[in-house]
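Researcher: We plan to redesign the surface later, but first we want a full-length starting point. Tokens attached.
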């Protein structure tokens, strides 16, 4: 069976991506064909320019889940290898869009480029579509405040502590996934036990601070930072789940961050830290 295919990497699945995906799903339903969204792993920039240390808005698992939440029938992951990097844009079209995915129509963003040295663009894709029997729709960018919504812009906002703006451009909470590991136990000692997450090292960790979040339906206060009051050092992601007292060691948690409560700061003593955490938790409970 043929399919309607959205072609891209879609890191973050932000509002610009969502326009492409929405159009893909809508068209597929009208034509009674399956909708397919592609992504690459690793991210092409990570493979081609590892020295840049690109941090991702979404791990592959997070990205796939967010794409499925958009109503997509199938997510196809292309493994980005040296062989794929050196593949010509026409060979990519034949191998993947024609033979593998059997595309009837392909949707891409306005600036999509693919193939060896990114020589393939929307014009080339349309030419190849005529040659191999599929049509191409270019989806226009989504703008906010005069700026095109792009993953790079959102990464910058998250890194600078402009969290609420970043989440607005994403169109969904910022998801942080990690395995629960043993911490120092200080959270429990001061009355606010936490699940300490080991997060994928390629994941972009937001600006240090306290966030209101949710794990499933349970509300959380999430501290991200170096815990300066204790002089610990190193970045930790600590999740205090409200009204929850079970052990979660070795479980993987996906926590959605909704709002930044405050930036990280150092307190003169543990008593003042405890009082502030109480206020943070109250804000998280109301969020």
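Model: Full-length starting sequence:
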């Amino acid at each position: 069976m043929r399919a309607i295919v959205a072609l891209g990497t879609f890191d973050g699945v932000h509002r610009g991506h969502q326009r492409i995906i929405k159009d893909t799903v809508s068209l597929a339903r009208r034509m009674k064909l399956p909708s397919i969204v592609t992504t690459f792993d690793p991210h092409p920039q990570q493979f081609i320019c590892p020295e840049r240390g690109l941090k991702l808005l979404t791990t592959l698992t997070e990205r796939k889940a967010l794409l499925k939440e958009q109503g997509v029938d199938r997510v196809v992951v292309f493994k980005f290898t040296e062989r794929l990097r050196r593949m010509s844009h026409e060979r990519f079209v034949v191998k993947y869009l024609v033979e593998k995915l059997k595309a009837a129509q392909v949707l891409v963003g306005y600036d999509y480029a693919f193939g060896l040295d990114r020589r393939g663009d929307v014009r080339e894709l349309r030419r190849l579509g005529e040659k191999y029997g599929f049509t191409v729709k270019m989806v226009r960018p989504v703008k906010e405040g005069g700026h095109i919504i792009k993953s790079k812009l959102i990464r910058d906002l998250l890194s600078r502590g402009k969290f609420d703006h970043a989440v607005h451009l994403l169109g969904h909470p910022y998801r942080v996934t990690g395995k629960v590991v043993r911490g120092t136990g200080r959270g429990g000692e001061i009355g606010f036990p936490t699940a300490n997450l080991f997060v994928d090292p390629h994941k972009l960790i937001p600006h240090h601070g306290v966030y209101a979040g949710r794990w499933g339906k349970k509300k959380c206060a999430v501290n991200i930072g170096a815990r300066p009051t204790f002089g610990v050092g190193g970045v930790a992601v600590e999740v205090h789940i409200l009204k929850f007292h079970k052990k979660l060691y070795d479980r993987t948690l996906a926590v959605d961050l909704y709002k930044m409560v405050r930036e990280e700061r150092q307190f003169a003593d543990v008593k003042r830290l405890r009082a502030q955490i109480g206020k943070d938790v109250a804000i998280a409970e109301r969020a």
